[in-house]
Amino acid sequence: MIASWYDEQGPAADVLHVGELPDPLPGPGEVRVRVTVSGVNPGDTKKRRGWLGSSMPYPRVIPHSDAAGVVDAVGNGVDARRVGQRVWVYGAQSYRAFGTAAQYTVVPEHQAVPLPDHLGDGLGASLGIPGITAHRAVFADGPVDGKIVLVHGALGGVGSLAAQLARWGGATVIGTVRRGGDLERVDPAVVSHAVALDSDDPAAAIRSHAPDGVHRIIEVSLSANADLDNAVTALDAVIAAYGTHDDRTELPFWPLLFNNVTLRLLGSDDFPLAAKRQAARDLTAAAAVGALTVDVGDRFPLVDIAKAHDRVDAGGRGRVLVTVP
């Protein structure tokens, strides 16, 4: 098969190779997926760079955890009728060496989720890590129907999906963006009230829409927003944080304690299996009825995977995808 891999960590152009590798074979309980589109996440590029001092987990790594494609072979114990089924894939390179930046990837069968025929491969390849993280952030502490959910970074990869899932779940969604110029990009059908963090008093703006405080906060940068979050939380609120800028984050401990705030930290590779499977079901269901869309940015052919990684590291708008020949 044609694949991309790295044998050492470093800059994308220096360590990513594209060439021929042996076709993988599915083991018991596994399926092999013929990949059409591979999704690139910040976590994929961080592993390749050795972020936070991480080392090579395996001698050779095929990157990327997310993809869309078609099941073309199954292992023992898997229903043979799955062959030919369109699927979206998550977690392919989570505690495994070989991910989705290849013509074939092998995963446990539940990590290849049936993709409805009317949904595109680009959407399917964009659901995995950001979608399951967003689902866990929104629903890990119970239903949100009738609640007010504040989503920071409502235009981001996880934030946009979190906002849509919260709205799908019956919540009123308040979303923040970094700059006032970004407000016009927020979908009012999803985010009832949008607030720019560079405004004079974002806490007052949020409180104007939630005078008794917000019930859930989906947090992209806990270190930057801890004081703001403290100012807008309701009693017994939950702050679900999947990111921070300062590794050692300071919190307004006593005010949060007096409000009985729960702080939930989210590491997507280690969510409970049942939570991942529920997230996969809900993401598919929401997407199937048009309640979930993804802003796809740049697409790169597999031969240009280094450019795709550099694009993710540089940041910017939209999901980055790699098309597989």
From TrEMBL:
- Looking at the record, the residues that make up the Enoyl reductase (ER) domain are 12-322
Asked whether the keyword Membrane is assigned, the reply is: no
Q: Does the keyword NADP apply?
A: yes
Q: What is this protein called?
A: NADPH:quinone oxidoreductase
Q: Which UniProt keywords apply?
A: NADP
Taxonomy, superkingdom: Bacteria
Q: Which Pfam families does the UniProt entry name for this protein?
A: ADH_N, ADH_zinc_N
Q: Which organism does this record belong to? A: Streptomyces phaeofaciens
